[in-house]
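To: structure desk
From: M.T.
Subject: fold request, one chain
Message: Could you run this one when you get a chance? Sequence is below, nothing fancy, just the single chain.
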Amino acid sequence: MSEKKGLKQYELIPSQKTMVYMLKYSLHKQVTNVPTSFAVARELDFAILEQALRTEILRNDCLRIEFTKTRRGITQAFLPNRALPAVEVLHFDSAEQQEAVFNADASKPLRPFQGETFRVRFFTDAEGRCGVYLNVSHLVMDAVATSVFYRDLMAVYDALAAGDALPPALSSFEAHLAKEYAYLRSDKYQKDLDFLTQFHSSMGGPPFYAGVHGPEMLDRQRKRLRKPDLGVPVAFDPFHDKAQTYRTETDAQTTRLLLDFCEKAGASPEVLLQTGFKLHAARINRRAEDTMLMALCGRRVTEDEKNMGGCLTQPVQMRTKMPLTATFAETLRDAARTRMSLYRHMNFPYIDALDLERKMYHFNRAQGPALMMYTWLPIEQLGDSFDYEIEYRGYALDRYIMPLYTFTFKLPHKDSIRFYYLYRTNVISRAQIEALHEGCLASLRIGIGNPDITLGALYDEIERQARHA
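Reply: Done. Structure tokens follow.
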């Protein structure tokens, strides 16, 4: 670190460098926006809410990060405070109007290197709820950090409204940085590198791209490059990055089927849905037996990490073999074991993991084997913090360099799981996203109904049902 304007200047930590990496290879810079809203089924005094927000900026130090860009790289400092103009209050007459306004803001890039790390609006929605819209740079917050922000903001609001003492302080992201730097110099870094090298070596060769659009893109590149054995195409595209978002939810019956099975089988909803996505993708890619997706790992284990802002999340490459003779139960167990094994090494920098993969398999920077980026958000736990209904929403970035980003969460106080699919329209159609969603759920219904069914038989059953639909 160095000194500038009396403030300590810190290097970015690996998770932040991952976001800079995305910015570097994206023409449209909104790709690292994190736009969400949080609404509550109660009346709020917006004057007190603005006072609470100003207090939150003092409590939540990631909101006071100032980035400096030089020829030597990017540094960050923590300001003692951050000026906040009067917060605009919007009143919406319909959900469509709210979506249109916030989607427009979500697709407008933040400028973190020019001092704009977040934008905030207050609002009332068509259902009479009061809420906060936050569009924040991924360099400053990940999705879990937004939950910390909303939870603490409401606790501060309630304290101010009641004239009570403020809630206990949040943990410091600035103090956490030392832990990140120490890891990079530790023996654990080398041990994690050795593990990942062995993990890749044990898979028997390069990964395979099982895109949710089917094998056509890979087939075209095989023909054009005259490489009939090509398994990983050029998938990243900063020039044709137009994207759309498809949002949908499960009904109560499907939700209970999935969550009751998770409880009975000791499986997490995250791994179950990952398995469903992979089963669909494998089936439509000529029943591929090797699949990979990137799972966004929150990396928040300690109480301090769970109680602070900042960007800690990093992608982890979830590669599994799915032979046709394996049963659904075996496939799910293997996915869970792989996740647990890889998450023990979750602090290894994602950019270093990419470099390792490229070195071992001779990929270029545009090749990508992952069928999607995926995350399960702990929004239900956020809802447990309140004794009234809340509504959490994400918004459309309009651009994305990778083919597909999917995030899901259980709606608080409701038997429903919400799915957001952000897909690049030059390679994936809306119909293919709808097929992915239905194919995932169809695979899971069959597997839950008969965990001992082989994947080959499961695929046969899905195709039989499709013929008779």
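Reply (cont.): The mean pLDDT is 96. Let me know if you need anything else for the meeting.
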